[in-house]
Amino acid sequence: MEKLLMGRAWVFGDDVDTDLIIPARRLVSGDESVLGRYCMEDADPEFAARVSPGDIIVAGENFGCGSSREHAPLAIRGAGCSCVIASSFARIFFRNAINTGLPIFECPEAAASAREGDEIEVDPAAGVIVNRRSGGTYPVAPFPPFLQELVRRGGLAPYVREELARRRQA
Question: What domains are there in the chain, each with its CATH number?
Fold first, then answer.
């Protein structure tokens, strides 16, 4: 995982469900670059066209509620977002995000302070979120080294494949 995650904030509200993240009618592929073209289209039809690599989704309570599909975090990665900051996450989305290598940070204070377009900086190892507009600095649970490595490798499946190959060679 990169040392710092930096990008522009895209702010959404509470209860953003997986159908808003990636509509069911768009589940035409498991390829994150394809899914990314449709990310958040029902919440903001221009999102996928305007998001820049590294940008950050910021949301309120219960982000990722609804279906348990792993396509939702893949669509966010495919759109180019570096991470998601929310007041809270639906448990299945939380697990799917980690398993697919999408860094997520639960921080109600950072989420509440963010405005659309704010420049946000996240240090996953140190557990710090900085909002450059407001000057606010918010502590968040740091990613332990294992999770940093899992995210760096692209998620659980690539991590396991690489570890098995490494052990076979040893």
Answer: 5-169 (3.20.19.10)
| pLDDT tens digits, 19-69 | 999 999 999 888 999 999 999 999 999 999 999 999 999 999 999 999 888
Helix (H) or strand (E) holding 122: strand 119-123
- Dist. CA 98–CA 155, nearest whole Å: 7
Beta carbons within 10 angstroms of residue 93's beta carbon: 28
Whole-angstrom distance, CA of residue 99 vs CA of residue 133: 32
Structure tokens at 30: 């498991």
Can you tell me the distance from the alpha carbon of 20 to that of 60, in angstroms, rounded to the nearest whole number? 14
3-state secondary structure of 21: helix
Half-sphere exposure of 19 (CA within 13 A, CB side): 5
Tokens standing for 88?
A: 């809270």
CA distances to 27, 32, 125, 168 from 105, rounded to whole Å, are: 26, 21, 12, 35
Q: What is the largest CA-CA distance in the chain?
A: 51
d(CA 26, CA 24): 5
Q: Model's pTM, two decimal places?
A: 0.94
